[in-house]
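ugh ok fine here u go
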Amino acid sequence: MKLAHFDLYRYSLAFAYPVVLKGATLRHREGLLLRLTGDDGSEGWGETAPLPGFSDESPDQAAEQLRRFAGSMMSRGATGDWVDPHGEFARDLDRIAPSARFGIELAVWNLYVASSGRTLPELVKPTPRAVVSVNGLLSGSPVEVLEEARRIREAGYLSVKLKVGARAIADDVALVRALDAELGSGIYLRLDANRAWGYEEAAEFVGGAAGVRFEYVEEPLADSTRLPEFSREFGVPVALDESLVGMELEALEEHRYARAFVLKPTLLGGISRTLLVAEQALRLGVTPVVSSAYESGVGTAALVALAASIGERPVPAGLDTYRAMAGDVLEMPLNLPAPSVDAKEAADASRAVDVRRLERL
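structure:
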C-alpha cells in the first residue's frame, strides 16, 4: 500500500461548560484532523490540537507543518518503520511541533492499522488490556467537588484527580481533607497544582494535609528545578507533567524520585515519543500515566490505546476531560465519561469521523 492522498480539516467543538486554562476561559476546543488515504482505499485519521497556554505552536503553524509533511509522504509505501518508535520515520518527525507530530503519527499508525487488519491497541502491543480504567476529574466549588466525588464513588471509579492551587492554602487543605473522608480507602486521590505554588506555599500545603492519603501531587512548584529537593525534604510523592515537555530522554534519569510521569502526546510530541518516555519511566520505577489535553474522540481513542498497552499493570488514565465536550467529530462518540472504557470499542469508533462537522482547509 502506498500513500495516495491527504485531506486537512479544522474543527471547533463547544465545551459543555467553560474551561479555564492558564487563566484563560475557553468555550470551544479547536483543532485539526488529518486524513491519509492509501492507494488501496484504506484511511487513517490523526488529530492535531495545540492546547492554549501549553503549546508553543499556533493552529495555523501546526496546519502548515501538517501540509508540508503529509505532502512529502505521498507515493511512499507503508513499511514497519512507520510504526517503530525507534525507527527513522519517528526521528524525521523531530523537526515538527509536538501537536503536529501527534497528528501525523496517529494518522500514519491508523492507516497502517486499516491496511493490516489490526486494532490500534494491538499495533502498540500484541496483547493489550481489553479495558482501561479512567481517572475521574473533580472541579468547581468545594460543595460541587464533594457532590461530584459522591457520584464518582457510586459510579465505580477507582481514581480521581482534584485541581489545587487556585484557592487559599488553608481552603485547599480543608477541601482535600474533606474529600479524603468522602472517598474512603477504596479510591486513589491524585492532586494537580499546575505549578501554582512557591516552595514555602507547597510546604505549607503538605504540612496541612499530613495524613491524607493521596497517590501524588502533580507539578506542585512554580520553580520545577526544586522538585527533587522538595520531594526529598518532605517525602511527598510528586508527578511530572509540564516539566516533561521538551525534556531529552537521557534527562529523565535525573527524575527517578518522581512517583509518576504524566504523558500527554499532544504536548510530548506523538505516539513514539510517548512510548519512549513510558519505556524510560518503567525502567526508572516511575509510573507512566497517559492523560489527555482535551482532544476530540480521534485523539482520545489513541490515548485509550496507549493506556491499554503501556506497562504490565493497569493504571487509570486521565481521560475524564472528554466529559467537557458538548459534542464530538465522531459519528458515534466514545463511551465516556465512565469509570472505564473498552479499548477495542474506542478504536473502532474513532475510525468513523463525521466530515460534515469539519471545515476543509
